[in-house]
Amino acid sequence: MKRSLQLSILCIGVCLSLAAQDSHYWSQQFGTRSALLSGAVLGGANDNSMIFYNPGALGYLENSSISINASAYSIGNIRVENALGQQADFESVQIGSVPLLAGGMIRTGDEKWKIGYGIITPVDFSFKGIARLDNSYEVIDDTESPGLEELVAEAAVTTKTSEIMLALGVGRQLNDKWSIGLSNLFSVRSHSYQRNFSTYVFMNDENRTLVGANQNQNVEYYNVRYAAKLGLVYRSGEWSTGLTLTSPSINFFGNGTLANNIAVRNLKLVDDDRISGVATARQAELKSTFKSPFSVALGTNYTKGRSYAGIVVQYFNSIDPYEVMEPMPGTFVRPAELAPELQSDRFLRNRAGAESVLNVAIGYEHQLNESLALLASARNDISYFDESLNDGPGIKSTISSWDIYHFTAGVNLDHRQSSISLGLLYSTGNTGRYEQPGNIDPSNINLVEGSTTITEARYGNFGLLLGYTLNLDRRTNSNDLE
């Protein structure tokens, strides 16, 4: 009786990225105090993180120039059980640092108008893993190769996704209760993905015939896009409420490369004779497209004595699947007579898309004295991964598809014209429906690309947030809302 074997995937990463993933909108939070509150500051905060959260609150800022720098350091663990088989793991260790926000304000002649700028890192995700299997199994029918065959298999995945966003915002205070603003968001996205999969079987015949296959996939591109965020703030007494509308992105420019190479040796397809051949294609300088959805956010903040609380709800619209790059048809299989109907564009396609998402964040701050405050927050971070992207041929370059829940606690120390923030971060998530390609099952082996299995994925992350804020021409305490 043939035995079944599966490889498992394990990623243990040390990366400074606040549990950043490649299919989430809220992995990163920005600023110092705002990050400790998980972004539950739509009603306004006295720092230029409002350029990102709600430009409508810029009109209320009392500081003529503010500079914020914050970094997050974290250790994360990704585990996908039985993803490639039980006897081989993927492992990945990464160390780095990510600035969450750096920016400032520009002085204007009219105190009602405020202009700000900021550079943020909304996405920073990397994964490297390799798994290897070397053992004997019953792979080939005994009529050709009696007994167990020696099988050597290896899989490797390397991917990195990052975005840098430049935000230019302007806000105007209309009166004591109303303020409006607009942020222009310019995003530069870079993505690289490589997957290598190889299997080799030695037949038990006179020649010890080698049967095997290799597959190498590669996606690399950069893209520049623009979106506008309109913000509105209403303040009355102890309450402040904010509303933002973010437009779908407009694609500016970008290009990239797609490659898919398959080589087989002495492979038997159904009842045909064993064949050898290659299927290979590479297309460079392809125009790239990446889309961000329309979103709307509503939040309110309440200040009473030394306590400050906030809640925000943000809805992200869905995006229909689309081609990140559009390859041209061409010869894929060589010799061509092996499969003339197979064209390269079908196997090079790399699609993206997004399901609709609703995220919620709550934050609380208690001022112990004039200088020291305690902060805590929680938020969900629903994955926008569209499972329909798993259907059909092509290169599937997204790793994460699980929902994440973030918890943050820390302190903010105010001192004259500066403040320091220190926080601890914890994130967790899992899914029982993770689709993982490349499973090795000798009882029904696909030597070319393995098989796709449904497995369980678990995610955990611990992190440290360090932030520093410098306020110039400071007029009010950074925790005051009015």
UniProtKB/TrEMBL annotation:
It is found in: Cell outer membrane. InterPro entries: OMPP1/FadL/TodX. Its main location: membrane. GO terms for cellular component: cell outer membrane. It is a multi-pass membrane protein. GO terms for molecular function: long-chain fatty acid transporting porin activity. Keywords: Cell outer membrane, Membrane, Signal, Transmembrane, Transmembrane beta strand. SUPFAM superfamilies: Porins (SSF56935). It comes from the Bacteria. Residues 1-19 form the signal peptide. Belongs to the OmpP1/FadL family. This is Long-chain fatty acid transport protein. It comes from Christiangramia oceanisediminis. The lineage of its organism: Bacteria, Pseudomonadati, Bacteroidota, Flavobacteriia, Flavobacteriales.
